[in-house]
Write a structure and sequence with these properties.
heterodimer, A: 164 residues, alpha+beta, 4-stranded antiparallel β-sheet, 4 helices, 29% helix, B: 564 residues, alpha/beta, 6-stranded parallel β-sheet, 21 helices, 20 strands, 37% helix, globular
Chain lengths: 164, 564
Amino acid sequence: MRHIISILIENEAGALSRVAGLFSARGYNIESLTVAPTEDASLSRMTLVTRGSDDIIEQINKQLNKLIDVVKVMDLTEGLHIEREMMLIKVRAEGGEAREEVKRLSDIFGGRILDVSEKTYIVELTGNARKLDSFIEALGPVPILETVRSGVSGIARGEKSLQA
Amino acid sequence: MELTGAEIIVRFLQDEGVEYVFGYPGGAVLHIYDAIYQQEGVKHVLVRHEQAATHAADGYARSTGKPGVVLVTSGPGATNAVTGIATAYMDSIPMVVLTGQVNSSLIGNDAFQEVDSVGITRPCVKHNFLVKDVAELATTLKKAFFIATTGRPGPVVVDIPKDVTAHRCHYSHPKRVSIRSYNPVVKGHPVQIKKALGLILAAKRPVLYTGGGVVLNDSAKQLTEFAKLLRLPVTNTSMGLGGYPATDDQFLGMLGMHGTYEANMAVSHCDLLIAIGARFDDRVTGNIAKFAPRAKIIHVDIDPASISKNVKVDVPIVGSVDHVLKEMINAIQATEERADAAALGHWWDQISEWRAKQCLKYDRSSPLIKPQFVIEKLYEVTQGDAFVTSDVGQHQMWAAQFYKFDKPRRWVNSGGLGTMGFGLPAAMGVQLAHPKAAVACVTGEGSIQMNIQELSTCMQYQLPIKVICLNNGYLGMVRQWQEFFYESRYSHSYMESLPDFVKLAEAYGHIGMHINQPGDVEAALQEAFKQKKRFVFLNFVTDKSENVYPMVPAGAGLDEMILV
């Protein structure tokens, strides 16, 4: 099953490689990983998306907690949460009809066109992973020149929060 | 007081009460060695290879409970130390390894003797640090000792660039340190302990399975008290030997791949397995699906990640072995409830039947020296009171099976990583920590050659270790597997061109003895152990065809042993 794990970790050199190294050494899979400092500059927050059986996820949580630099771990999948990912996608948009179609799709998905050239558009789109996938699907025959996705960031709903 | 980084390191080690540093100098640590030269508080032991420095520190730590300290230079100094660091990591041994690093300005430039020590050691340390500023040096060292010795212990590497050891700053010994992200749990949860107690009192066929955690946590006394209170059968892992007195009649011997018949049968048939400070290693469980199939399992461990990693447990208790055992003993003494004495009686009858198999029997009338016989005689001659280190292979298993350890910290072996070459340097650390004690290194002609250069260190420091080399001319455990599972195709398990070990020992200034008759074994051992001040290398020419029994083949259940 897919799990979204939030990690609060000391913002120190090598912290990311400790997490990445743990996953590769123990053969766990990383679907996506985002990391950036929090409002407290001494801490970084990671959101890690992984897949595995309940046993594996339990081990992942325990092994993450065991890392000395890790302050807190929360499996967001256990409760209500919000996940968001941002995508920048550059598509070929030539001719009135094609350009109209991309603009229309972008509007429907709540995206924004950030860059316009004679032959291309860059669309910015934010949502959960499924929404971004759907947008790509909806583009259909429109040629995609490149996509870049941020990976998932996640946060628990309501009172629950991940704090040092 | 303003000190250089190098002086801070040495002063810090003094202030921490560090007795010995095991190391080898080199360019990046020259400032530190200069500071060592100018003081007398910390004694430096010069090994002949950095791997031996880590094993010696490891032996020191295992036999004393205090952290072992290592100092090596950058590059090859650090990479040579990695095997010893990984060995300590697998067996949860408290150790602090100081590695020199090239000047900060050169890091990343592929400088002479530069490696990414923090990167290389990351998967085999509890934690590691790169010190970038002399102002952080003392607190980082304090953190390293704190992390290495608390919770589930382990090695910590501190990588120190050369310029940091030259820079000056104020020093005062940090008395304590706190790390917000590191707070190991010590106390077991009372609700879990109560649940465990319920299962224990209801059990009809209980077994206590204990590991290195009991030894590391100095809980042998509590374990014995607990087992005695309930008359529980006890089996130890290789790491756990000495955690329960081996001569006690409740002791079933070691379990696992080369465990005793009674221990493996008891685990396979028990209705309650109480695992304490053990981690269900594959060498212990055999085929997981067939492991303790009828049992509920209680697991006490300081490391939550060890619980339900390999085997699902019914009652997990995270906490220090010492604390949880004390709580359990108190709870048992407080309750009116008693275990089912009749059921326990039947269980012990069953165990006696298994014992009657005498699974450790061997041919005592052989004209050749049987390796088991050597260990039995070693046990007798040292009155069961020696520190025994071992290398890895058949001799290690025979030592574990035939030397009856009644006290913890007497059996020093590389259980998890299985590092050949561990025994001799480990014995150096043990002997330095216990100068008057009898220290034996049980080894084979294969393993001993992996760190044979340390014969020189033993001479320099006048270490009266006795090497018990069970020389069968084969990498015996490899040969045994090839005999059983590869139709006796002995691919590269035979060692040609062995040195004359007697002459070799003598070349280093030691005493060498060659023994090839069973009748001479005891006298040779007696003569060797009389040499209180001399290192003696005893080369026992043993039966080449002897195998370690019982044996649980790979993939089989514990009750599917090959017996002699």
